[in-house]
From TrEMBL:
Gene name linked to the record: LOC107015380
Gene3D superfamilies per UniProt: Methyltransferase, alpha-helical capping domain (1.10.1200.270), Vaccinia Virus protein VP39 (3.40.50.150)
Organism: Solanum pennellii
Lineage, broadest ranks: Eukaryota, Viridiplantae, Streptophyta, Embryophyta, Tracheophyta
Pfam families according to UniProt: Methyltransf_7
PANTHER family with a match to the protein in the record: S-ADENOSYL-L-METHIONINE:CARBOXYL METHYLTRANSFERASE FAMILY PROTEIN
Protein name, per record: Benzoate carboxyl methyltransferase-like
Keywords assigned: Magnesium, Metal-binding, Methyltransferase, Transferase
This protein's record includes keyword Methyltransferase: yes
Family recorded in the similarity comment: Belongs to the methyltransferase superfamily. Type-7 methyltransferase family.
């Protein structure tokens, strides 16, 4: 992967290129962010003076959750307008993702989405492109939303020796941690600078992405990726892939700590942090709150299946796997997950942040 940019920041609406691919898991994550989203919308300005509420959803994907957040936003505005006894604004919604996203699937669902709206005029458009580039006219957006996308980097750090790991683990040299943190700093700073050009003064952003619970680069999601590294090592031992292929592969992913995020926002200077919350969900979203899985075998298979939807395209592109080897890789991954779950469950740690344009 060295030297090659990989722009993968689609959310998990249909399990296509997101770290947590289950649509039910993604729905839980969206719901956790709703209170922050509601508070941000209440503060976006005086609705009686807005004839059109202009918003963007970055990393929208194309599954059943794509329009779920948009529906929530419109409902929140409806309640606010009822409380103020003012006329509902019209809504201009820009759905953004990479050009190879299945926008046709989104567009086919738009008619039924329109029919379900009550007393709301909404106009939806697709905007293909990377959110690490300019996407919208200057000072045109009142609200920017993104769910489970910004942990994807514009590219993986390059030219790293990482001790058979595809991401940061406790055996990674310090320069690997530094390379990842520097790449996230660069990407998130650029994201903020670009959105500041596109957002009106006083406009809001609500962003949800994977994070770390403490300023420690070795979190629970890192364990999940370490188990995937172990599965690739199994394939090396069996002569199914070459060592050099693993040595040259790094995931374009980073989950920052709350402190890192706040520091970058402050240094970039275009936005002010209103709210930043931290929450977690289980690797297997079907689990209860016990520490040990009731059925580790079932959970291992379930998590491996979800992860395959995320990583298969990247792995096949780099390692040139055939179908049978891909199947075997994720069988090994399910095995390693099961062994880990017999000891303790894992969590996805998440950050939701609300920002105001200065």
């Amino acid at each position: 992967m060295a030297g090659k940019k990989i722009l993968l920041h689609m959310n998990a609406g249909n399990g296509e290129c997101s770290y947590a691919s289950s649509s039910t898991l993604q729905r839980k994550i969206i719901q956790e962010a709703i209170p922050v989203l509601e508070d941000a919308i209440k503060k976006t300005g005086d609705f009686p003076k807005k004839s059109c509420f202009n918003m963007a959803d970055l990393g929208c994907s194309s599954g059943p959750n794509t329009l779920f957040t948009i529906s929530n936003i419109i409902k929140i505005v409806q309640v606010l307008c009822d409380e103020k006894r003012c006329k509902m604004p019209e809504f201009q919604v820009h759905l953004n993702d990479l050009p190879d996203n299945d926008f046709n699937t989104i567009f086919k669902s738009i008619p039924s989405f329109y029919r379900n709206l009550k007393e709301a005029n909404c106009f939806v458009s697709g905007v293909p492109g990377s959110f690490y580039e300019r996407l919208f006219p200057s000072k045109s957006l009142h609200l920017v939303h993104s769910s489970y996308s910004l942990h994807w980097l514009s590219q993986a750090p390059e030219n790293m020796e990482n001790n058979n790991n595809i991401y940061i683990t406790r055996t990674s040299p310090p320069h690997v941690v530094e390379a990842y943190t520097n790449q996230f700093d660069k990407d998130f700073s650029r994201f903020l600078q670009l959105r500041s050009e596109e957002t009106v003064s006083g406009g809001r952003m609500v962003l949800t992405f994977m994070g770390s619970s403490i300023p420690d680069p070795y979190g629970s999601h890192y364990a999940l990726l370490e188990l995937l590294s172990n599965s690739l090592i199994d394939l090396i031992h069996e002569g199914l892939i070459e060592q050099a292929k693993l040595d040259s592969f790094s995931l374009p992913f980073y989950a920052p700590s709350k402190d890192e995020v706040e520091k970058i926002v402050e240094m970039e200077g275009s936005f002010v942090v209103d709210t930043i919350n931290f929450f977690k969900v289980k690797w297997d979203e079907r689990d209860n709150d016990d520490d040990i899985c009731f059925d580790a075998y079932s959970s291992g298979k379930h998590i491996a299946r979800n992860s395959r939807a995320v990583f298969e395209q990247m792995l096949v592109s780099h390692f040139q796997f055939g179908d049978s080897i891909v199947d075997y890789l994720f069988e090994r991954y399910a095995y390693h997950l099961t062994c880990n779950l017999l000891v303790q469950k894992g969590n996805y740690f998440n950050i939701v942040i609300s920002l105001t344009k200065k």
